[in-house]
Amino acid sequence: MVDYTVAPLWGSSLVDNSTAGTVHVEVSGPSTTPSGDVLIITIKFEVLYQGSYPAVDTSPLDLQNVVLFDTLAQIEVRNVIDGKVVIEGLLTLPLPYLEVSSVTMGPEPVLGAEFNVTVSIENLHYAWYFLGLDFRLSYPTDLIEPVAVYEGPFLPSWAAQQPGSLGTYWYGEIWTDGVYGPHILVGNLIYPNETGWWNPPWPEGSGVVAIITFRVKYQPYGIEQNSSMLKIIEQSWVGLSDPAIQEIVDVPHDVSVDGTYTIRWNMFIGRVIDLYGGAENAGYGRAHGTSYNGIGVIWPAPYGGQGSNTPMDLVLDQSQVWLFANVTYNYWPVQSKLVSFEVQKPDGSTLYNPVAQTDENGVAYVTFRMPWLDENPESLFGVWKVTATVRIGDVVVNDTMEFHYDYMVHIWKVTTDKYEYNHYEGVTMTIEFGTHAMLRYPVLITAAVRDDLGVTIGMATFEGTIGGATFCTYENYTITLSVHVPKYAYAGIATVHVRAFDMEPSVGGQAWCPEYAPAPKILISYR
Fold first, then answer.
1. With contact defined as beta carbons under 8 Å apart, do 254 and 379 qualify?
2. Do 336 and 191 share a domain, yes or no?
3. Residues 120, 186: one domain?
4. Which domain does 58 fall in, by range?
5. What is the pLDDT of residues 237-293, one digit of tens each?
6. Which is nearest to 319 in space by CA: 291, 288, 285?
7. CA–CA separation, 313 vs 324, rounded Å?
8. Residue 389: strand pairing partners
9. Are 161 and 464 a contacting pair, CB within 8 Å?
10. How far apart are CA 235 and CA 398, in angstroms?
11. What are phi and psi of 198, to 5 degrees?
12. Which of 389, 405, 421 is the last residue of a domain?
C-alpha cells in the first residue's frame, strides 16, 4: 500500500496500516445521508513482484470485521464480497510478420490465366493492440501483371467483434511507376467507434489482409521454368500503447516472409482426367463459384478440387452437388469419351455411380443431392470420396476427390463467467465454435437468456464471417457476448440458448446447425 484517499462524503476518518498486510479503516460523519453504492476509500497499491509467463499470482483482498452503524444502532451486513489482484506473468511479446503466399502455375497452358496471391498477418499477439498497417508488394513484371486488389477478411472480422466499430478503412491500388517501381500498395485500418474509441477484443493470431489477382503474361516453351520473388518492399504497423490511454504508436514487426511465383511448362503430359466441382450450399456455393456453360456450380481452385487427388470444400446437409471431369491428352480435349463416376460414403459403401460422356471441350458432368435420413441423419457426416475414371487409348486413368459433409457450424462449448447473477448484472457468455469450410461464409451467432418462467430477458448477437479451414481440420473461433439481467426477470433457474445462422430469419436467414444443447443453466438470485 502506497497511498489512499478517503471519499469526501465522510467528515472524519481513521486509516491505519501499521500492521503489515492489513489496513484498518473507520469513517463517520457523512455530509449527506448515504444511499445506494457508497464509496468509502480508494487505496493505491504498488506491484512488488511479477513472475514470468505463464505464471499467474493472485493476491486476495479480504474484507474482515465489517461493521456498519446508523444513528441508532448497528446495521446488519447481508453479504461481504472480497476482491483480489491478479498479476499475470510477464510476457515478452512475439513479433508479428507478413507472409506472402507462393504460387506455381503450369505445366499446363496457363497464358492469360488469372490467379490469387494472399498477404497474411502471422504471429500477432493481442497485447500489441493492433489497429492497422500498410505495405508495398513488388512482383515480376516480365512474368505477370496485376488485375485487382481486394481486402482480406482478417481485419473486417475483428472490426465486427469490436463494439461500436465503424468497420475498416481499405486501400488497395496498383502502382505502375514511382520511386518503388511497379508494385501493389495496400492500407487497412480498423475504425474506432463514433467517439473515436477502440474497444476489445484486439486482433490476434493470423489471417489474410489482402488478396491480389494477377494474370499470367508469359509462359516459357519446353521443359523449363521461371521463378521470381513476390516481395514486401516497405511496411508499417500501428496499434495502441495502452487500451486505457488510446495513444496510437508504431508496432514493431519481424522480417516478412516473401513469396515466390513460378511458371512451368511441359509440352508432353499424356492422358489426364481432372475431377472437380462444387455444391449449392443454400445458394452461397453458387455465389462463390462459376458455372460451366451456365450449368452447375464450380468452386474456384483449389476449393473445387482442381488438380490431381485434391479435396473439395465443405458440402452442407441436403445440398445439390455438381461433379465435372475434364479429359485431355497432352492438354488437348478428348471428346465423346465415357467417364465413370463413383460417390462413396464415409463407411466405404457406394451411394451413386453414374456415367457421362465428354463434350467438345472434353468435359463430362453429373449432379446429385446429398442424402438426409429420417433418423440419425448426422451419421452421414464425415469425409466422402468421389472417383472418376476414363479409358484413353486402352489405358484407364483416374482422379479422386474427397469432401466433408457436415453442418456449416459446430458450437463446441458455451460457458458463463459465473453461476449466480443478481438483477442488473450482466451475464457474460463465452462461445466456442468451428467450421470445416475453406471458402468464407457469413455467420450470425445469437445468445439468448430465458428466465425460470420461460421469458426471454435479453439476447446478444455476433455477426462476422467464418472459413479458411484446412481440409480435415476445423477452423475454430471464440467470442464473448453479454446479456443484461433486468429487474423484471423472474428469480430462479435460467437457461442460455445459443444458435448459429447465416443471417436473421426475418430477412431470409436460416440455421447453420442445431441449437447448442444442453442449454447451460444459471441462477438469477432472489436476493
1. no
2. no
3. yes
4. 3-88
5. 999 988 999 999 999 999 999 999 999 876 667 899 999 999 999 999 999 999 999
6. 285
7. 15
8. 340, 398
9. yes
10. 46
11. -95, 140
12. 405
